[in-house]
Amino acid sequence: MIYSPYTVVKRQGDGFIGVPYHIEYQKWLEPAAAALKDAAGLSGDPHFADFLSARTDALLSDDYFSSDLKWMDLEDPKVDLIYAPYETYLDGVLGVKASYGASILIRNEAESRKLAVFQKYVPDIQDALPLAPQHRPSKRGLRTPMEVMDAPLRAGDLRHGYQAVADNLPNHPRIHERKGSKKIFSSRISWTRA
What we know:
35% helix, single chain, alpha+beta
């Protein structure tokens, strides 16, 4: 359990234990989950509402698989959300502990239409990479949604350090095998740093 991406390692006697994020960060996750549940009730998009409800459950259990599948199934959402511990870059010890990141995303329709022209070529481009097939980013036949989004809010790991102009998520290999991954390109990052 101490090697799980979703645990905080703490001393216990002469050894270590892994405390699940949903327990260690409960006082922050419960209000966040309640807000997501409220947002799900306000959404006019039933698929997005279903994703938000699943993400609520994920935040309170550290099991993101089901909500990531629902996120991958969203088709051209007008509004989207990244809210999960995805990236492990901040773990300077073993590189396995994920950090929470969040971003509210608003679809840039004009730029997304331009990008859609290239989407059909992604499998051919990946086949041309000088990598063995099992090491290529996505498997042929899986969805590879590509979206251009404005990001009026970025928080946590998604606001820390340098600001990536694209995200390739989710990171979990089981999601990649089953659904592929979503490529989100940021057209504008609308915030200022204090």
